[in-house]
Amino acid sequence: MKHFLFYILLIFCGFNVYSQINELGVFVGGTNYIGDIGPTDYIAPSEPSIGILYKWNRSPRHAYRFSYTQGKLSSKDIDSDVPSRNLRGNSFENSVKEFSAGLEFNFMDFDLHDGDPKISPYVYSGLSYFIYDEIYILDNNSKVDYQDSTFAIPMVLGVKARLFRNFIIGAEVGFRYTFTDNLDGSNPENDNFESLRFGNKNSNDWYVFTGLTLTYTFGQNPCFCAE
After folding, report:
1. HEC states along 41-87?
2. Residue 138 phi/psi, 5° resolution?
3. Whole-model pTM?
């Protein structure tokens, strides 16, 4: 174990020697979900969300990105334009606490070596792991059964700009395809609630984070040169 920690330390020291640039910041925005209850809008943030993120810029075109984001999920059939949902009248509340890691790709060069203003659209994807409540619907309202966790695939599209030397602001919308069909209580895993299942059991739920990021760059300015 001591040798392992020593090698990890050498790796991080190597990152500093080669002057990779770092970003650390926050995400602030809203959350909505796509599933079997409520409106069917894809982007409709209705609950607050907040997070932190770290990026290691490997080149002007890509960065490794790690984040933690949490938000509340809720929806009501009464707000839906679908007549059958509106008449059904179900509602639910849940929450997600997400850890995510992956690759962010810039469509334009985002070279932080110079001090000029920069702007670029970007995409991000990787793998997310999130914690949520297994719920069920009883008397049109959600009840918590137990806490569970699973994976999701993040698909994020955004645009970012460096307006000041050490600060980068971005706006993004991030869809998460989850490996569960029960963010909304429509398909509880517990077989004791089999009679309470409803909706499309062949389609998993989605949740969406929409908001702004603000990161601070630190570390020595990199030279993105061919070695």
Report:
1. CCCCCCEEEEEEEEEEECCCCEEEEEEEEEEEEEEEHHHCCCHHHHH
2. -135, 125
3. 0.87
